[in-house]
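Researcher: I need the complex structure. Ligand is threonylcarbamoyladenylate. Inputs:
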Amino acid sequence: METVLLKVNPDCIQSGILLPAAASLQSGDLVAFPTETVYGLGASYRNEPALRRIFETKGRPGDNPLIVHIWNPNQLDELVLEIDPKFEKLIAAFWPGPLTLVFPKQATVSPLVTAGLTTVAVRMPSHPVARELLRLTAIPVAAPSANLSGKPSPTRGEHVMADFNGKIPWIIDAGPCNAGIESTVLMLDAGKPLILRPGSVTREMLEEVLQETVAVSNGEAQRPSAPGMKYRHYAPKAPVVLVEGPKEAIVRKINELLQEDRLQKKVVVIGSAENLTKYHTKLVLDLGSEQNLELAAMRLYDLLRACDELGADQILIEGVDQKGIGAALTNRLHKASGGNVIDVS
Ligand code: TXA
Ligand code: MG
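Model: Output:
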């Protein structure tokens, strides 16, 4: 199959440029498109063959449900049975934006979208290209991240090309994604807000709007409410070791590990800007300042993919502070390391 790579300037979308891709979505083709979090691999949520193709193309397990993307809250009517007043508050505060809400679903929503659950996850992205594509398509679009299952999510058009060139008809490239990690996923558990996947809408931000405590699910131990979280995710080819604790102790430990491994293996370090020159190797990738974890979130997946390109045999990563977006970043770092974490505190 020939893939059309369509470059679109998000600050100035040429009129009509997205029409053919929207028509393809309507007729059951897959279209990869940018969002403010990561690129998505979209299909009409009503088209079952297209939904099946999402799972085949990604190599995604069938029990991992998809998020449905809308551009206008009116589209919720065809997807969900009811909107809890707490969700109404969150929609007013955070949509469009990187917050996915889990609603009781309408009977007409295919079990291929929801992996047979009685709920459906919906989000309204803020990226101008995503919004325009969704507006033109008019049908809500089911879309997981546009990466082969298990690989780091794509935050640039090049990442999508690397995984899907020749396998899907359309890739819309609007440059790098701003947030860089996937949306926060939130459900109500017996009426109480529960974060199933942390993201850039932080627990603190949610608590401020809801004026109540928001719990965070501890992943693996959770019931099938966040099925996607149980798989090894976000992982580059080389094994990742995550080192957590006070910054000085992290640097000491990473240098120790480098000492052991450097001669036999190609070891790449991912560290904060403040510490780059402290490592006893030239193979250091810059996650940005410790004071700016938003930037680290934006860069993380690109750096993990860069490790593959450098031919790394081993990756050592500095842990980050847990506050705010740091919680989401830590969640992805733990996943990327497959639980291979050294705590030096
Ligand atoms: O930022 C994002 O959310 C990106 C962009 C493309 O929008 N999408 C994304 O999709 O990350 P995906 O498929 O990689 O992750 C979807 C997550 C999974 O953890 C899945 O288990 C969860 O959402 N999910 C989907 N439907 C659910 C449901 N009904 N109940 C609970 N969790 C659900
Ligand atoms: Mg994903």
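Model: Summary of the prediction. The longest helix spans residues 293-310.
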